[in-house]
Amino acid sequence: MIFDIVKNLYASVTVIDNTNGNIIYSHNKHPFTDMQIQTKEQLEAFLKKYYNATSIPIFDKIIIDGSSYWIYRKYQNNHIYYLIQECRYWDVMLEKAESQSIIDGLTGCYTKTETETLINNLLFTFLRYQTNPFSIIMFDIDFFKKVNDTYGHLAGDYILKQLSALVKTHLRESDLFGRFGGEEFIIVLPQTKVNGAMRLANRLKESCQSHNFTFGGSKIETTISLGVTSVSITDSLLSLIDRCDNALYDAKKNGRNKVEYR
Questions:
Q1: pLDDT of residue 53
Q2: What is the Cα–Cα distance from 13 to 27, expressed in whole angstroms?
Q3: How far is residue 231's CA from residue 190's CA, in Å, rounded to a whole number?
Q4: Each residue's pLDDT tens digit, 20-53
Q5: 79 strand-pairing partners
Q6: What is the distance between the alpha carbons of residues 123 and 233, in angstroms, rounded to a whole number?
Q7: What is the mean pLDDT of the chain?
Q8: List of domains in the chain
Q9: pLDDT digit string (tens) for 192-225?
Q10: What is the tens place of the pLDDT at every residue in 142-157?
Q11: Residue 81 pairs with which residues in a beta bridge?
Q12: In this model, does residue 160 exceed pLDDT 60?
């Protein structure tokens, strides 16, 4: 059964029949062996104790006896699954999955590892033949932590996903778009010098500022800061990324919602 599969992956599994609210399966491993969750009321009491709520987000963290756990709620076939696992376990699994994948699951952008590989390939060609110049744009979302704190992590994920889709409408088929960190992204523009990169960066800034990001009935004002640079014959991957990152820092230092070049 599916229950036997999931119980080997999670420290705690509780399954509710969504039609009547009854507990139909419960399995707990250390430190949850004493939970004794057999009814919906006992599950709600547990959630209230550790999360101060009987209804939780789809995916979030809780603290139990000083340790951090992910708690995950999933709907499937008239069942509600409440799944709990140590953060350390999932951090390792997610890091492994990300390193083996070239596409970020949330945004559909290239992963950081794949983006660096693609930049290295372009850089190698440029340095060897001194042809095919390129530019890069690095940007991140202004005050993104405030979005998560105010509206929740699901709203933050919504912003990341919608912003990525918006940015893609401005890119050419040859351009490369990668997620470089939590809310940090990088765009690689083959055959593009600084003037073209700056024009695109300003279009992206204005497009984001004017876009209507609405989640759960709330409009979330969203802006981005952008740094721009172009490759030179003295560059390495590290120097190229570092220079663009410094340009991004300049944009944030100068008031955010700006474009800066280095």
A1: 47
A2: 5
A3: 10
A4: 777 777 777 655 555 566 666 777 776 666 555 4
A5: 17, 76
A6: 9
A7: 83
A8: 2-92 (3.30.450), 101-261 (3.30.70.270)
A9: 999 999 999 999 999 999 999 999 899 999 999 9
A10: 999 999 999 999 999 9
A11: 15, 74
A12: yes
Q: Helix 153-168 and helix 194-210: axis angle, to 10°? A: 130
In single-letter form, the type of residue at position 114 comes to E
Which amino acid, residue 133?
Answer: P
Query: According to the model, what pLDDT value does residue 142 have?
Result: 96
Measured distance CA(216)–CA(234) in Å, rounded: 49
Answer for the pair 107, 156: CB distance below 8 angstroms, yes or no. Answer: no
Closest CA to 118 of 180, 193, 176: 176
Would you call 234 exposed, middle or buried from its count of C-beta atoms within 10 A (0-12, 13-18, 19+)? exposed
The tokens of 112 are what?
């950081």
E-assigned strand segments in the chain: 12-17, 23-28, 59-64, 67-76, 79-86, 134-141, 176-179, 184-190, 214-215, 218-219, 224-230, 259-261
Question: In this structure, what token pair is assigned to residue 213?
Answer: 């990001």
